[in-house]
Amino acid sequence: AQSLIKAAELGCDTIILDTAGRLHIDEALMTEVSEIAKRTNPQEIFLVLDANTGQDAVNSAQEFDQRLSLSGVILTKLDSGTRGGAALSVKKVTGKPIKFIGVGEKLDKLEVFHPSRMADRILGMGDVVSLVEKAQEAIDEEEAEKTARQIMTGTFNFEDFRRMMQMVRGMGPIKDLLKMVPGMQANSEMLDQLDERQFDRSEAMICSMTPQERVHPEILNMSRRERVARGSGVEVAQVHNLIRGLKQMGSQMKAMKKSGMMGRFADPMKAFKKEKTKEIKKMEAEGKSVLELPAFKAMRPGRGSAAAKVRKDKKKKRR
User: Fold this and answer.
1) Is residue 152 part of a domain?
2) 208, 221, 231, 289: least buried by Cβ within 10 Å?
3) 164 within a domain of the structure (yes/no)
């Protein structure tokens, strides 16, 4: 009651009442939340469920809906390994919509729920649209195009690499981004082995270089590499690997451009910009997967994917 009075004094137009959480349903909890609902008469009542709890989440949703008449459900912890299958069961049992999903602990990690995106996630097809949305929010388009041109023409240097890392990391944790890529959820072993600290070490090594060394990595001889290693607190071998990785990135990008694969992966971003207001919104409203759009089909896991074609090409070369 005191919080409502204080909110009125401050002129707050929205008040969120967060009740105590429980792992299992008990009568004391239900009596408490029922009493709070009667006294405050809220416009919306949301049940916050942990996506990892499975059947318990369904039981909780059913019990709460019977006692409180829920407006909807918020499904949290979808940034963990779970695919969110509980979402289907909760909707089926209660008939109440899932309004939001939580993909992290900060305020900007609460997202509007899209059924078609959740279906893709459950089927292991990732969430391409959310990935592209994050990219558009965090990455400057002109800077990204400039970086792509530099990589493919062989003028990409460590200063560009550092800026690229900062742009990508601005989108969120790397593991979370990779989970949105079609087919990556199935490769849980690779995701578990991914060390986010490697990006910190790479940035530390680049920052330990002189401005000239960053722009002209070819001048990094042994003595310079040893100095970079001392300055960044890593082994010289790690500096060697960083330099080798920059060269390999350029070679791989050139090969992808030659095979036409760069265009295939660029299509989703272009398609998103052209079709977001029409086709994508229409498909999401109809509950269809955006992976059915021609521009996104190349990113689907399976025989027709770009990754599968690369594997086939490698097998042919071995023969």
Assistant:
1) yes
2) 221
3) yes
